[in-house]
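Researcher: For the annotation table, I need structure tokens for Acyl carrier protein. Please keep the output clean. Sequence:
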Amino acid sequence: MRFVRADGSTHSLSYAAEVETARLRQDLELDSLDFLRLIETIARATGVDTPERDYGQVATVKGLVDYVAAHG
């Protein structure tokens, strides 16, 4: 199965799975400040606050999406 990104490029389902399991700070190279900005931006956009004690739950792309879905 393949999917098309907004820029028109196509990727396999395995690529989507890789992105979903990507670790925000290590694999996507977000430093601490970038990570906090991401959490703050998501909070403003969704109304979902992520307390520091829950940062482990939002360490991956999937974890972040699931967390927002569960708390939003």
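Researcher: And a one-line annotation?
Model: The longest strand covers residues 2-4.
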